[in-house]
Amino acid sequence: MTDRTEPQLPASAAVLRRITKKYPDSFFRIARIVLHSLWRRTGIVDTGSSAAVSFETIIVTRYGFDPAHFHAVINLYQDEPPLPSSISDELSASIIAHGIDTDTVTAAFETALAADTPDGTHYTPPEVVTFMFERLRIHNASEQIIYDPAMGCGVFLLEAARRGLSGFTDSTHDTAERYRTVVESLHGVEIDSRAHQTALVNLLITLAPAARHLMERNITPPKLRLNLVCADALTRTDAGFADIVIMNPPYIGEKGHKALFDRTMREAPRWRKHYQGKMDYAYWFIIRGVESLKHGGMLCAITSSYWQTAYAASTLRQYLLNHVRIREITSLGNMPFRFAKGVHTAVSVCEHCSDAAARAEHRPFIIRLDSHTGAAMQSIASAAGLPPGKTASGVSISSYTAAETQSMLGGGPWHFTNPEKRTAGFSASTHIPLGAICDINQGMVPNPQRTARAHVAAGLCEKAGEPIFAFTEEQYRTFIETCTPDEREHFVALHKNSDIAAFTLKKPRRYVLYVTPDTDIASAPRLHNHLSRYKEILIHRRECRTGRIPWYSLHWPRTRMLFTEPAIVCPYHAKTPVFAVAEHGCYAATDVYFITLKKENTVERLACLAALLNAANTRNWFAEHGSRKGAMMLCVTNTLKDIPIPRDYIDNLDRFTAVTEAALSCIRGNTDCSAVEKLLPKDLF
C-alpha cells in the first residue's frame, strides 16, 4: 500500500470509533475535535495559543481555502447533543499523542451513519483504492484532473492528493505552485451533505503535512479553488474536462427505488434515453463518467460484475462500445464487500476513444482473482503490482486477452472467453437453438403471497406474514380442515427453484391457492371469505385497477396446462444450471422455467433431451454465454432459447434408447445420474 504521512494507529482509531458509536449524532462535533487536535499535533497551530486561533484563520492562512466552503465543518453544530468534556479531552489527547488518518475518520463516519440506516453505508476499502490506482498505472497525479462523480468521503481523491504530493515536504522548489496544482486537480461531486462534509474533513487531514511545510518555510499558500461540491452529478452537464475518472458508483436497483429513477429523469430528462427497466442506478454514473473524459482519458470503476451480462444493461454496453476501448476488467468475486451478500464485483478500466476502427478491433484484457485466503482484503493491494498470472498473498490470478474484439460484441450479454480454453464453435449446419424446438415459459405469479409490514403500516391488514395465496404445509393443513372437497381442489403443491436437481424434483413443502379469472369464487365460500379479508390489498394491484383480472385472481396464473403436462423444469438461478423432468407436470412460480417440446412432448423425449441439458458440454456453454449474478448463474428465457442442441441428437432422439432409459430411471430415483452422460456418444459435440 501507499505510504501515508499520518499513519493510522490503533490507539486513536479505537478511541474515535468507540466515541462515534456511542455518540453517532455528534459526528461532526467529533470531526471538529479531530481536526483541532491534529493541527495541534502537527504544529499548524501552536499548542499554547491554539485556543485563540479560529478555524477560519487556519483554513485561510495555513491552507489557502475560502472558509465559506468549510462552513459546515467550522460550524459548532449547536443542534447536536453536547459531548462530555472528558470524552473530548480523551480523544484530543489520543490524537495529539498518536495521530489520526482519513481511513479512520471515514470508518467512524460509517459507524455514525449506520445508526440511521440498518445496513449502513460502506465506502471503498483502502486496499481496493490502491488496487484501482495501480490498474490505472497512476503514480503521480499532480498534473492530471481527477474526477469522482460519486465522491462519498473522498477516498479516491485523497489517494490522488497523497500521490500528487508524494515527497512534497522534502522539496525546496515550486512548492506553492505544486500544492495548488494538486489540490485544484481534484474534482468531486457528492449528493449526501454529510458525506461531502466528511470528505472536506478528510481533505484537511490529508493536506495538513503540506500546509505545515508551507508555513515552516514562510510561504503564503495560494488562494485555492475548491472543486469538491455537494450536488447531484447526474444533473450536471459539464463534459470532456477530466483526464481520469475513478469511482465506486451507488449500487441501487430500480426495484424498490423507482421514485429515485423517476425523479432523476424528471430533473435531468436526458437520462431517459439511457433508461432501461430493472436497470441499476450505477449504469447512469458510468455513462456520466465517460461523458466527463477528455479524448484518451481513462475511467476506472468498481461495480457489480452483473452489468456485463444483465439484460437491463444492454443500453449501457452499447454506449460503451460507441465511446470507449475496454482496456481491462478484473473480476474480484465478493472479496472487497463481504457484507454485500451475493454481490460480486469487478474493476473496469476504459479509455475514451473517438476512433471507431480502433474501438472495433480492440480486445479487452481479462483478469480473474480465482481464489483467495481469509486475508484477501490485504491481498488485493499486494496483487495490484504483480503481473497477472502470478500468485501472491493467497490470491490466485488468471488472465488472458479475450478472444472477442469489441466489434464482436453488442448490446447483448458480454462473455470474454480465453482463446486457449474456448469450446468449439456452433454453426447452423451442426446445431439448432433450443428455442427452435421447445417452448420456454416462466411459472405463475402468486402476488401477493402473504401480508407484509407495508400492508400493516397502510392499515390494510392487522398482521404481517399471513397467507393470502401462498401457504406453508402447516398453514395448508389447518386451512383445508374446514374446506369442501371441491374447495380443496383449488390448492396445488408449489415447487421452489431449490427443489430442482439434475433429472429429479424434491417433494414440495408449500401450497398455492390456485384461483384464476375463470374461477367461480362465489361457489367456494371458504375461499371467498379468506380472500375477502385481503380484498383491499388485492384491488390495488395494477392488473386489478386496469380490469385485466378480477380482485380474487392470482396475479398471473398462466394456463393450467403449463403445469399439468410433462415438462423439463430448471431454476431461474442456481450455482450450476440443472434440469429436471416433471413426469406428471408440476406447479411453480417465476423462479422456475418450464421447457416443453413443440412436437411430440412425451416424457421419453423430454428425458432424452434432459440428458443432453445436464451434460458437461451444456454447463461449459453456460459458463461462456450465460448471465451470472454474484455466485449464481441466471437461466433466463433468452439464454435458454440459445442453448445449442446438436442436430444429430434432436433429429434422432428415438435412437438413443439407452440414454432415454437411463434418464427415465434417474427421473424416477432409481439410478445414479452421473451414469447418464457416459452413454452419450463421444463425437456428439
Provide a descriptive summary of the structure in words.
The protein has 685 residues and is an alpha/beta fold. The protein is built from 29 helices and 23 strands. The chain has a 10-stranded mixed β-sheet with strand order 3-2-1-4-5-7-6-8-10-9, sandwiched between helices. A 4-stranded antiparallel β-sheet has the order 12-20-16-18. A 4-stranded mixed β-sheet has the order 13-15-14-19. Helix 6 runs antiparallel to helix 10 (193-216). The longest helix is centred in the first third of the chain and has 24 residues, at 193-216. It is globular. Mean pLDDT is 86; it is low at 1-9.
Features of the shown structure:
alpha/beta; 4-stranded antiparallel β-sheet
Mean pLDDT, all residues: 86
- Secondary-structure-based class equals alpha/beta
Give a quick account of the main beta sheet: strands, pairing sense, barrel closure: 10 strands, mixed
- Biggest sheet, spatial arrangement of strands: 3-2-1-4-5-7-6-8-10-9
Number of helices: 29
Low-confidence stretches: 1-9
- Which bin fits the share of residues in helices? 25-40%
Rg from C-alpha positions? Answer: 30 Å
Spatial gap, N to C terminus: 48 Å
Shape: globular
Number of strands: 23
Strand percent estimate: 15-25%
Helices and strands in order:
Layout: H1 10-22, H2 27-42, H3 55-63, H4 71-74, H5 85-98, H6 102-113, H7 126-135, E1 146-148, H8 155-164, H9 175-184, E2 186-190, H10 193-216, E3 228-230, E4 242-247, H11 258-267, H12 281-291, E5 293-304, H13 314-323, E6 324-333, E7 345-352, H14 356-361, E8 365-371, H15 376-384, E9 391-392, E10 395-401, E11 431-433, H16 434-437, E12 438-442, H17 453-457, E13 470-472, H18 473-480, H19 485-488, E14 491-495, E15 510-513, H20 525-532, H21 535-538, H22 542-545, H23 560-564, E16 567-571, E17 573-574, E18 580-582, E19 587-588, E20 592-597, H24 603-613, H25 616-625, E21 627-629, E22 632-634, H26 637-642, E23 644-646, H27 647-650, H28 657-667, H29 674-677
Parallel strand pairs: 1-2, 1-4, 2-3, 4-5, 6-8, 14-19
Antiparallel strand pairs: 5-7, 6-7, 8-10, 9-10, 11-23, 12-20, 13-15, 14-15, 16-18, 16-20, 17-22, 21-22
